[in-house]
Amino acid sequence: MKQAIGRWVIPVLGGLAFVFLLVPVAYVFAYSFNDGGRANLTWQGFTLDNWGNPCGAPAVCESLANSLQISAVATVFATILGTAIAIGLVRYRFKFNATANMLIFLPLATPEVVLGASLLAQFLNVGADLGIGTIILAHTMFCISFVVVTVKARVASLDSRMEEAAADLYASPVQAFWRITFPLLLPGIVAAALLSFAISFDDFIITNFNSGNVETFPKFIYVAATRGIPAQANVIGSAVFLIALVIVIAVQILSARRAKMLAAR
Amino acid sequence: MSLLATRRQQQTGAGKGKNGRKRNKPEDFRSPGEVAADKRKSHMGYWLILPGFIFMLLFFVLPVFSLLATSLYTKPPGADIGQFAPALQFSNYAVVLQDYWAELIRSFGFALIATVAALLIGYPMAYLVAVRLRHRNLLRGILLVLIIAPFFTSFILRTQAWKQILADESLVVSALQAVALLPEDGRLTATAFAVVCGLTYNFLPFMTLPIYASLERLDTRLLEASSDLYSNAFTTFRRVTLPLSMPGVMAGTLLTFIPASGDYINAALLGNNQDTTMIGQVIDSRFFRVVDYPGASALSFILMLAILALVTLYVRRFGTKELI
Questions:
Q1: pLDDT of the residue at B7
Q2: Pairing with B200, which of A6, B47, B108, B153 sits 20 to 30 Å away (CA)?
Q3: Of the segments A47-51, A156-160, A234-238, which one has the largest average pLDDT value?
Q4: Structural domain that includes position A237
């Protein structure tokens, strides 16, 4: 009897934890179908109108467009700069290796308010106009660290004998990189880019400090929260959730298939 | 020339791993061409990291110094709103500490409770997926996606959902009132409980994933060995499982505590404006509502230093080397 209880403690606790984790997501979904009008705080009845007209509430889609644009640009910058750093740090040794690693790690260990506030202090001191440009710079900064950490793991697990073999077969370093190293790193780079995009898209605190009058999607929801968030925001939130889920599952399946293919060769 | 180049490379320790071994060979094994190629390669390394590091210097290191400088600015008499003059006014720190020490301590208190709660919830979750379901690949994959699934919806929308879950007429509140855990006129929304609950919820995946990563590598034969040696489940957990998952617990607690102590979305959406105010809200309002840049900068700097100090103490006390 006692043993049976012991066996079930972990599944029950773990299962409850999953419920805790997912109930709010279910709420976001459910309230995207609520006929609640502008406030959308209490359940008023089922409707599909919000999904039929996702741009129905004022300024929702403008802020979404800004967010998509910012995240896309910041992701491209951060992925390029971060991947180069990751390859450099793993493959080459520098005098200041420890300092370099620290410089990458520190933004991850600093609360967002401090990152946001220090960038704002900087932009105020140099007299920069706050707007889309400053948001992109801020997002690129904190995404670089995530890219480096993600890609570094991939570079470290790379078998350098592959590149040596390419060199033995008279490939130039550039050829060896683009034909051998880069394809092997690609899954890590894609994962890092998806991660940056997700983090950048959902960021509120750093954005709020450096955005001036520009509305991003999270900022729109935060400002709307005092008066009541329109159901259209829930529609977009749920749609983003579904798209991200599809991408993650597709990436998983593709990488599993790729691994199988490589193993079969 | 080639000798000089090699010595310099050995000093800087250019290359490592498999390449490093090649470079440490006596130099007569290498042709001058190879030496030159190696030297080019180490230059290549600098070119790879340079652009990113210049970016980080400009938009991370320099801003921190900018923050420090701004925190010491002074407001000249008769200046417009938002006009400050460079100075070394250290009294800014004393003023904000005196005004906001309560919010600072409360932030760390809330973050600490949320971290402990996330650990208690996240550990069984990670154990279930990493150890109990180790051989059920499909189920494990699905559950892993579910752990990160909340990140796919907006942080603020999920926090708003907690506001609805804990609202006065909600199921949770009526249920708690029915079993008399909550008085009839008691409420959960706009309380410290709601804020801590939101913090725990929002940072739970940051706790679960690192613990999962270290439990995934746990050799289950060690658990069998432990029970063969007559230890009960609890002793096995305390003496074998927990110590082996410590790197994950360390990383998870830091990844939860640091963002939680600076967060203000939860306090703003789930709290009231009196006894749940966190330091992030104060920094935000001193920047944008009060337009007191030096005060806000001083508070940010204090927050950063306090977190660095706490984290250093914590890592010294419990830490392992394989943190990063």
A1: 39
A2: A6
A3: A234-238
A4: 1-50+230-265
- CB-based contact (8 Å) between A137 and chain B? yes
| Domain annotation covers residue A221 | no
Amino acid at site B227 = S
Same domain, residue pair A3 and A44: yes
Compute the distance between CA of residue B252 and CA of residue B206 in angstroms, rounded to an integer: 6
Residue of higher predicted confidence among A78 and A96:
A78
Q: Comparing C-alpha atoms, which of A33, A52, A36, A54 is closest to residue A44? A: A36
Residues within 8 A of A (CB atoms), B 141-200 only: 141, 143, 145-158, 160-165, 167, 169
- Tell me whether A62 touches chain B (CB under 8 Å): no
Rounded to two decimals, the ipTM of the complex is 0.87
Min CA distance, B148 vs chain A (Å)?
Answer: 9
Q: Is A196 a domain residue?
A: yes
Buried b or exposed e, range B200-225, using 16+ CB within 10 angstroms: bbbbbbbbbbbbbbbbbebeeeebee
Number of domains in chain A: 2
* From B52, B165, B264, residue closest to A81, measured CB to CB: B52
Is residue A19 located within the same domain as residue A135? Answer: no
CATH H-level, domain B94-318: superfamily: MetI-like (1.10.3720.10)
Crossing angle of helices B2-12 and B32-56, in 10° steps, is 40
Which of A92, A147, A136 lies closest to B52, judged by CA? A147
Q: How many CB atoms lie within 10 A of CB B109?
A: 14
Stronger pLDDT, A77 or A4, i.e. the higher one: A77
Contacts of A49 (CB under 8 A, 6+ apart): A35, A56
